Every structure is written in structure tokens, then in C-alpha cells.
Amino acid sequence: MSEEQSKSEVYGDPTEATHQEEDDADALLASLEEEDDSCYRSRRLQELRSASEAAKAPRTLTATSKAFITLKSDDEALSFTTQHERAVVHFFHPEFARCSAMDVHCEKIAETHAQQQEADVSFARIDVKNAPFVVEKLGVRILPCVIGFVKGVVKGKVTGFEGLCWDGKEESFAVTRALEDTLINWTVLKKRYILGHLDDDDSDHDNAREAFHEGRRGIRDRKKTAANDDDDEWD
Description:
Order of helices and strands: HHHEHEHEHEEEHHE
InterPro entries: Thioredoxin-like_sf, Thioredoxin_domain
Organism: Exophiala aquamarina CBS 119918
CATH architecture of the largest domain: 3-Layer(aba) Sandwich
Helix content: 40-55%
Pfam families: Thioredoxin
Number of domains: 2
CATH superfamily of the largest domain: Glutaredoxin
Strand content: 5-15%
Strand order of the largest sheet: 1-3-2-5-6
Distance between the termini: 23 Å
Number of strands: 7
CATH topology of the largest domain: Glutaredoxin
Protein name: Thioredoxin domain-containing protein
């Protein structure tokens, strides 16, 4: 599966939702050609062209809720991690499909915890290209990378999907819960709010995790596990 296909699965195909809008715009454009008022016609044509261009614009990782903000520089990243008591930052690359998958998990946790008054934690993302100093300082080499902070101090780091996914189902809800559990273990999150019952997918996930650890015990000198072979090196 290509990266573009992976992105479409996470966010949906941005062109499908705009087909009807484009058809409506074409019809309006045709009718406006027959208008006698040239000033009105010119103005409406420009408005429609602008609306059409906006509708065709691709969705990006920055188009998300206020609970999960986008940082744009080293200074913003440093301020965010030091000014908030507890903070989580997703370091991503906009062209990596696996970063899109991780983004969905982070956003789900961010939105859920933002609804709880006692959940004193802030979530953000930053494109690695926009924060070279912070990326170098924190040793971010493999993406996606999620780092948790408490009072500006790093409490833990998730590289790729290590420790979160053992069966290749990186977009499953089980991964969201695993990431939340990891953040709790780091003391970045105080309480679990992502709820869900055990189902077949969860059982498969647990079985895959057990097999993974069994393999680690059997091959102790292996440097990388199969679950991480496809992690993206960005630099």
C-alpha cells in the first residue's frame, strides 16, 4: 500500500466530498455567464473560484481541534513544554503515512482528556523540519515520535509504534489505549479516560504482544523487531 493510500485511509479521500460542490459550482458559473450585470457577475465568479480552490485543498495534519495544537518553531516547542505542567508532543513529517496514523491516536487522547477538568495536560504536534534545534536536542531520529514532558523534563519517548503495536494494526483503537497507558506510566497523564471493552481485535492484539515478547526472549541479540522495521528515518 502506498503512502498516499495510507493517508487516504486515515483521513478519507479529500476529493470525494467535493465532487458535488464542484458540480454545483460549474452550474452556477454557467448561469452567471448569462447575467447582464457585469460587476455582479465578475464578483460572484471570483467568489466561486476562491471557494472552489479552498474545497480542493488537501487535508493536512494541521487541520485539527484546539485540544491538539500545531507548533511552528523551536521557540514555540520550548515554550510549550516548559509552560505547561504536563505536555505531550508528536514529532511528525507531513509526508509519512505512519505519522498520520499516530496523529489520530494523539488527537483522540487529547480530545478525550480535554473534556475532563482534572486532566491537566496539553497536547501538540510539530513538523520536524520546523524545529531542528529541539529535534537534535531530544535525539529524534525515527518517526513518528511521541515525547511526554512533566515540568519541562522528558519522562518518556515512543519511537515509531514500539511498545504500542505488535500485530501491524497501527490504526486500531487498541493502539490508542496502549498509548494512553504509556503516558500514564510516564505520569504525564493522571488517569485513564479512553474506555473500551475487550473484543476480538483486542484479543488478537494481546496474543500478538505475547508472541512478540516470546520472540524477544528467544532472540536476544536482535537489534530491531519486525514491528519497527518500517519506521521512517527522516534525516
